[in-house]
Specification:
Layout (H helix, E strand, L loop, with lengths): L1 E2 L2 H6 L4 H8 L48 H4 L5 E3 L2 E6 L12
The chain binds iron/sulfur cluster.
């Protein structure tokens, strides 16, 4: 869903799933959440019967579940698109999270 040099990916993730994965990493010094609190709602899609469009759309925190006007997410699979003209940083998302919304 997202590719980039390691430093870029860890410091500036733009795909909502990448952000959720990084948010699920436990922090031993300052626990950010209870151990059984899910990072994302719902369950992973059945790989044998994936949903149409973006396979992540039923769980995406910035997809049509929360923003119904983003119908593109549930109808068209996103391709790997460079983020802000950076050919090394590519995201499979119709609406990559802007940098300003990150940590
Ligand atoms: S394409 Fe839509 S549903 Fe998929 S990750 Fe991006 S915003 Fe979320």
């Amino acid at each position: 869903m997202e590719t980039a040099p390691t430093e870029t990916l860890l410091r500036h993730p733009r795909h909502p799933y990448t952000q959720a994965l990084l948010a699920s990493v436990p922090c031993l010094r300052s626990p950010r959440r209870m151990p059984d609190e899910p990072t994302l709602p719902g369950e992973a899609a059945d790989p044998h019967f994936p949903p149409p469009g973006c396979r992540f759309h039923p769980r995406c925190p910035v997809g049509p579940r929360r923003l119904p006007e983003r119908t593109l997410c549930s109808t068209a699979a996103p391709g790997q698109t460079p983020v802000e003209h950076d050919e090394l940083h590519r995201v499979a998302c119709h609406f990559p999270v802007p940098n300003s919304r990150l940590r």
